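Protein details
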Amino acid sequence: MTQEDGDLDSLVRKRIRALRVAQGWSLEELATRARVSQSTLSRIENGRRRLALDQLVTLARALDTSLDQLVETAADDVLISPVVDAAHGLMRWPVRADPGLSVVRQRMTDPPPDNPARMRAHPGREWLVVLSGTAVLLLGNRRMRVETNQAAEFPTMLPHAIGAEGGPCEILGIFDRDARRGHQRGDDA
């Protein structure tokens, strides 16, 4: 066993215990859920029993996580710098845990379009929160004010547009892959 293997082993054991404690479960409760004995679970957590792949799979399921998340070691890239799109006033961050998601920060100064033909509809879902100011969300036939610290989530197959009301506003949005593509196509048009 190499030093790295030992570090991974220790990390996985700590994660098992931390996830169990975060759920508020005793050794007995997790052992019951994972269908292992309480003493086996205790020895796994304390490093006195070898970690077996089949037990890790069972423990991951019982802890409502994946084996990948239980053994993941990539913590090198914790900080992520944004990609800046100055032409559209956007900052975009990829979400590594789900490559289909992007987080976008945008400052808006213009109101939403008056012409319903300028509203977009495309596959996907969007979630946004207003960081400052007041935004107006046009969603189908509805017009909604979204104030600072309020959030909106909607399917993007509904025609939609967003803009500022009464001065600039700043939003933070989370786009799934389809919604991001829909907006990229819309920006190019």
